[in-house]
Amino acid sequence: MGSISQPQLVPFPLLMNGNYTASTIPWRLPSDDPSIPTPIELSWLNLFLNTIPTFKKHAESDTSVPDAVNKAEEFAQRFARIIEDFKKDPASQGVPLDVLLPCRLREQVLKELGFRDIFKKIKDVENANAISLFENVVRLNDAIEDEGKRLENLVRGIFAGNIFDLGASQLAEVFSRDGMSFSVTCQNLVPRPWVIDDLETFKMKWSKKSWKKVIIFVDNSGADIILGILPFARELLRHGSQVILAANDLPSLNDVTYAELLEIISKLKDEEGCLMGVSTSNLIIANSGNDLPVIDLTRVSQELAYLANDADLVILEGMGRGIETNLYAQFKCDSLKIAMVKHPEVAEFLGSRLYDCVIKYDEL
Fold this sequence. Notes:
By secondary structure, the chain is an alpha/beta fold. The chain is built from 13 helices and eleven strands.
């Protein structure tokens, strides 16, 4: 059943036409027997099975849903059955399996049972924590006089913020107890060179301040958006760029939604409408039309498509959007994919370490 807020979806206008596919990691080859799951399919399907206890736990404590405990159990059983059926017969849906389909089915089962946003509580806590640290993070960035070093620090902040999602809850706990752990995390990223490391090329282009309009597809609530993306976006605003932050229409995992992002920005802005002294008159918050932790760029909101037409840099942030679904996506303008590797399956595909970093810059 469609949500009232779901806008009509259209292709992202800056996508290079041709052979775009929203799935980076092929789960099977054309020569594989369609009725037998491949080792890659099995490892990814098991990954989805392993998420069920976390989802169930958060669903049980969703006070907005009557009889949440029983419904959470029903979710767990139904979604597990779907995944087990795929393991028996990967061709049962009539389309090749990829990361989008289980994500979509998981959301569908939750919604059918009345769950709208099972991670709302944890998102609210993470946002409050990160908002209290925002000023300090920005001051530390602003104190770096060398522009190249400041950019590298901002990029490290995006990676550090990107750790704090539900795949790394123990880090989130440390973070909520001790704000310093954000800067410690920035320092303790795996050493460069990262698995894909175009930072130096990106730095050279950054120093020219040539992007007039930048679109950033954002990822998680909390440290990710508030301490990672927003200081970076603020720096772009300082450069004179217009910045569009594209956030999910509907909740999924702990991703920040359009409505939540509007609220976050209003809490961080001062009376003059500035983010720590930088005007937000060139900052636009857009609804991407998406409702998953991954994104198919043939399906974005008409609003975003309209805003995107003359952008000259597209940034996809986070593992779901920047690696699992769009690592090789090509655009009619410069593009940056920036994310941390948090699944062993992704690390294996990239030939990287777990918690390795990806900064892939493609200049038009």
